[in-house]
Design goal:
The complex is a heterodimer of chains A (198) and B (584).
Chain A (H helix, E strand, L loop, with lengths): L4 E8 L4 H14 L3 E5 L10 E9 L12 E6 L2 H7 L3 E10 L6 H4 L9 H7 L3 E3 L1 H8 L5 H10 L6 H11 L5 H15 L8
Helix pairs in contact in A: 1-6, 1-7, 2-4, 5-6, 5-8, 6-8, 7-8
Chain B lengths: L1 E6 H11 L4 E4 L6 H8 L5 E4 L3 H13 L4 E6 H17 L5 E7 L15 H5 L3 E2 L4 H18 L3 E6 H4 L1 E7 L15 H4 L3 H23 L5 E3 L2 E9 L1 H9 L3 E6 L1 E3 L3 H10 L3 E4 L5 H8 L17 H8 L26 H10 L3 E3 L24 H11 L8 E6 H17 L5 E6 L28 H7 L4 E5 L4 H13 L4 E6 L13 E3 L18 E3 L5 E3 L9 H5 L5 E3 L3 H4 L3
Parallel strand pairs in B: 2-3, 2-4, 4-5, 5-7, 6-7, 10-11, 10-13, 14-15, 15-16, 16-18, 17-18
Antiparallel strand pairs in B: 1-8, 6-12, 9-11, 19-22, 20-21
Helix pairs in contact in B: 1-2, 1-6, 3-4, 10-13, 14-18, 15-16
Classes of the chains: A alpha/beta (198), B alpha/beta (584).
Amino acid sequence: MTQVVTVMLAGVGGQGTILAADVLAKTAVAAGLDVKLSEVHGMAQRGGSVDTVVRFGEAVASPLTDPGGADHLVAFEMIEAARQVPFVKPDGRLLVNTRFIDPLPVLIGDLEPPTGVEEALVAQGAIFIDAEELACEAGSPKSANIVLLGALSTGLDFPVELWADVITTRVPAASIEFNLRAFELGRRACGEGGACLL
Amino acid sequence: MTHTLLSGNEAAARGAWEAGASVGVGYPGTPSTQALEVFARMEHVYAEWAPNEKVALEVAAGASMGGARAFVTMKHVGVNVAADPLFTLAYTGVGGGLVIFVADDPGMHSSQNEQDSRNWGPFAHVPVLEPSDSSEALEFTRVAFDLSERFDVPVIVRSTTRISHSKGVVDVTGERRGQSATDYTKDIGKWVMMPGMARARRRVLDERMSELSAYAEDSPFNRVEMGDTSIGIVTSGVSYQYVREVLPDASVFKLGMVFPLPAEALKRFAASVERLVVVEEADPYLRTALRALGLHVADVALPPAGELSPGRVAAALGAGEPEVRPGVEGLPPRPPLMCPGCPHRGAYNALRKVKAIVTGDIGCYTLGALAPLASMDSCVCMGASVGMAHGMRLAGQGTERPVAAVIGDSTFAHSGVTGLIDLAYNGSDALVCILDNRITAMTGHQPNPVSGMTLQGRPVAEVDLEALCRSIGIERVRIVDPHDLDASERAVREEVAADGLSVIIFRAPCALLIKDKDQPYAVDDDLCTACGLCIRLGCPAISKGEDGKARIDVTLCVGCGDCVQVCRFSAIELTGPACDIGGV
C-alpha cells in the first residue's frame, strides 16, 4: 500500500486556507487517490487560527493528524507557522508565507509582538515564500493561497495539468487566468533554481 | 456513478434527497449548517430555515404526518430546544419517514458546551445511527428514512464536527431511489397524545424498542472486523477511523447504530477477544452500556472531554508515539475577532460608555466579551440574554451600573422574543439591545425572518422588529445606526435613564454583506497623539505602532468610519483607493 501523505494548511480565518485545501483534495481525487480533508467552520473563521488537514493515498482512515504527523505544512502566516511547527514530521517540509498578521491582543498593545519567529522557523528548516507579492504579480493579492499551492506542488507528485484542471473548475470564472498564473509563479519560486530553495 | 469529494453534511443532504425526502427544515448551527443548505439546492425539494429547532421539528412532524419524508437538521444544542416535540414524536411515531440530522461539536470549536447526542437514543426512545465518514453519512441518512417508516419512529443520525466538516470520496449514484410514504389518514389514537391515547402509545413504543433491539442484532449498520484477537475494540463514528489508523490489525466491532445496541452480538464479540476496549469521544456512552450488559471493559486513559485524534487513541492504547519537533515558545494566542466594519462594534462602544452589565447571547457579537471591547458579562444559550437581564434586575443589579441584554436578529427570532414577552408582561425595566445585522452571520450568512429572503431565495416580508416590540406592549422602542457612535451612545444613555422596559434596535448590515467597500482610512502621524482611543475599538485593521501611534492596514479597512468618530484629534482621514497605495 502506498504511503498516506498528510498536508496541513495553517493560517488566519479569511486567508483562503479552505479553498486551497479543497483544490489540493480535489487534485488528489483526480489522481485516483483516496482522500480525507478536515476543516473547521464557524467562530474559528472570524480571524482566529485556522488549520485544515488533507490526507491522501491508496486508503485513508483518519481525517485528522497529530503533532509529528504532517509531511507538509503550508503556513499562510508566520506566527501560525511557528504555532503548528510541532505537527511537521522531523523529515517533513515546512513552507511558510512571509506575511505577519498580528493577533488582536498584539494589535491593541495587550501583548508584545512575538520575537524570534523568523529565526525559529529558519532553525526548523522552513522554506519561505512571499505569496502576496507573487499574487500581486499574477494579478490579484487574493490569489496568495494559490501561489502557496503552486509552491507546495513541487513537493508532490501530481502533474501540473491536473492542478490546472482543478483550479479552473474551483475558482470564479473571472479569476481563472490570474489564479493559474499565481499557481505557476508559486511553483516556479519553489521549483528547481527557485528563490525559496536558496 | 460519480466519484465525488463530499463533506459529511453534503453527503447527508444527498442521502436525504436520494431517500425521496421532499421537505427539509432546520436551524443553522455549526457544524450542521451545510446539511440543509445543500439539501435546499437539490431538485424537487422544499426547504426552509425555521426560527428555531423546535419549530423545525414540528414542521417536519406535520410533513411526516401528512405523508412526506422530512429531513430535519440542527446542532447538538438545538436538540435541547427540539426535545419537547421529539419525546412525544417517539410516542406518535411517523407518517412519512422522519430523520433528524444532529451534529455534535466535541472540543467546542464553535459551541458553548459539549453534548453527546447519542444519549437522546435511550432518553427519548428513538434509534440513533452514527456514520464514520461521508460515504456512511449518505448511506445511513438514506436508509434511516426506510428505518423510520418500517419501525414507525423518528430516527436520529448523529454526526460530529469531524464527520460533518471532513470530506471524503463518495460514490454518488444521483438516483432518487426512495419514495414518500402513504397519504394522511386520520388516526387520533396515534396522533393525539392525551393521556388515554399516550398510555396506549407508550406500550407501542416499548414493543417497537424490542423489535428495534432484535433488528440491531444483525443490522447492516453494524460490522465486526475480526483480526488480532488479543484486543477487541468497540467503537463508532469518527473514533473508528482513528482506531483503524492506529491499530489496523485489531479486531473491531464497528457500531453504526448506537441505539439500540446489539446486546447479543456485543457479548459474542467480547467472548472472542482477550481484552475488550471501548474507544469513543465525548461521554462514556458505550462503556456504560457495555458494562450494564455485564461485560468487562478494560480501562484505558482516553481524554474525558474534547476531541480524540489518532495520536490520542494511540497514546491511550499504548500504540506508540511519534517523534515531535519542539514547539516555538512565547507565541501570542489568536482569538477570533469582529471583522473590520462590523456594526456590533458601535453598539458595544455605547454600552461600554455607560459601564453597563451586559447579558449576552449566541452569535458573532459574543466576541464583544473579549478585549478590548470586553463589554459582555454572560453567554449561556440562544435567547438567554433577555431573561437574564430581567433576572439581574430582580437581584437588585442596575442601580450603580445599568443592565442591558444584547441579542442578534436571528437569535431574537429563535428564542429571544419569548423572553421579551416575559419582560414586557412582568414589567421589567431592563434595556434590551437587538443587534440587527439582517442575517445569521456566524454560521455563514443564512437568511432569517428579518432578512426578507427564505433559504431557497424566495423574497418575503421582513419581520418588523419595531412593530413586534410595540405590539407586545413596549413603548420605548427605537432604531439606531450603530455606525453613528454619538447617536448610539445617546440612545443608550437615554434608555438606561428612562423608566420601564426599553428596546434599542441597532440596525446595520453585517460588514461581510457589503460587497462594495468604502474607501479606507489612514492615520496622520503628525496629528495622532497615541491616545489609544481608536485601538480600543478592537478593529483588526487598526494596530498600535512602536511609537504608540495608530496604524491602519489599508488592505483590511473597509471605510466604516467608526474610528474617525472616536478620534479627538482629527488624525484619521480618507486615503486613496487601496490599490494605489500598494500596501499589500
